[in-house]
Amino acid sequence: MTIELKSLTKRFGALTAVDSVDFDVGDGEVLCLLGPSGCGKTTTLRMIAGLEYATEGDVVLQGKRVNELAPRDRNVAMSFQFYALYPSLTVAENLAFPLHAEKMSKSEIDKRVQKISDTLQLGSILGRRPGQLAEGEKQRVAVGRSIIRDPTCFLFDEPLSRLDVQLREEMRGEIKEVLQDLSRPTVIVTHDQLEALTMADRIAVMRDGRIEQVDTPHNVFQRPSNLFVAGFIGTPQMNLLPATLTDLKGDGVAEFAVEGNQSMIIEVDRRVEELARGAKVTLGIRPRNLEISREPSADGLSTKIDMVEPMGAETLVHLKDGHHDLRLVTDWRVPLAEGDHVHTKFPPKMTHIFTEDEQLLRTK
Ligand SMILES: Nc1ncnc2c1ncn2[C@@H]1O[C@H](COP(=O)(O)OP(=O)(O)OP(=O)(O)O)[C@@H](O)[C@H]1O
């Protein structure tokens, strides 16, 4: 492991900005720190870079504890945005710029520029100035400039936040490819879940200074370890319904009383059998997993269509069951009218169960 954080904690006076954070990042691995504003992402990154000192815990880079080392002695590359090229310098000069501070020979600098230019396919534009580049090209040069120093690890803080949507989409894939080729550990801070889901090998979801889950993008989405992660990851947001387990029918089939007096019988995780009747739970189901039908049945709730929002290939339907708002995404072609009464079905095994302590009831 080349970046290891051990019980890393940062306090600013009475505020614990980062609270006993543990994770490690291997060579060639991209870990995204994801979470709402103020949850401690940037402070964690700054402690790895040495721009903030840890109050407690350790930062270990390539097996060596670096807590007391100054940023320049850690040989990490930290960049905030892939932007701001020097307009009067050529692409080659922009790329070489960070190397001048390192007192490198001209031939070594040329070699590095050549290598980066090959990796990012900048060969044909090396002699141009930023004003003569397309936006996507400028971005590639900016990425190149931030990785040319060959540090032990890369740290990026919201690297794509200033870009427009289309460029962001292009750059996500491109940066991921480049980082994979470089075989260094990378930590990227973002509050944009799409960025994390597409660029990360693993995502660390943070809240209030703590890590809630560190896992692959697939697992963070499919098996959120608690209610916070479930609600934070996924757009539109997962439907979360407070309910009480009223009966167990065997084989993971259970009856729930959903707040507001409706009950339904659905197939869920078999571990539901470990809960006692009367247990308070939260049922979580993604909007794309809900189904609607005109016929009432026991495996769902009767609802009324509150709003229909076309989203191109899919339609977002807002439903009300009297007490809750449910979101459903469908490509259903049958016309749906606002005010219609429909039955909202919870298909087998699509519903997550969160226990009273907000943790996911896990499959064995
Ligand atoms: N130098 C500082 N002095 C005092 N408090 C600070 C300092 N730096 C950060 N904080 C506080 O620590 C907490 C975590 O901040 P941090 O910038 O790490 O969050 P973040 O998750 O990166 O947020 P954002 O996405 O908004 O950048 C916040 O409450 C912030 O106000």
UniProtKB/TrEMBL annotation:
GO cellular component, one term: ATP-binding cassette (ABC) transporter complex, substrate-binding subunit-containing
Classification of source organism: Bacteria, Pseudomonadati, Pseudomonadota, Alphaproteobacteria, Rhodobacterales
UniProt key word Transport: yes
The protein, known as: ABC transporter ATP-binding protein
Claim: Transport is one of the keywords in the record: yes
Gene3D superfamilies assigned to the protein according to its UniProt record, in alphabetical order: 2.40.50.100, Nucleic acid-binding proteins (2.40.50.140), P-loop containing nucleotide triphosphate hydrolases (3.40.50.300)
Residues in ABC transporter domain copies: 3-233
GO molecular function: ABC-type transporter activity; ATP binding; ATP hydrolysis activity
PROSITE patterns: ABC_TRANSPORTER_2 (PS50893)
Any matching Pfam family: ABC_tran
Family of the protein in this entry: Belongs to the ABC transporter superfamily.
UniProt keyword terms in alphabetical order: ATP-binding, Nucleotide-binding, Transport
UniProt cross-references to InterPro entries, sorted A to Z: AAA+_ATPase, ABC_transporter-like_ATP-bd, ABC_transpr_MalK/UgpC-like, Mo/tungstate-bd_C_term_dom, NA-bd_OB-fold, OB_MalK-like, P-loop_NTPase
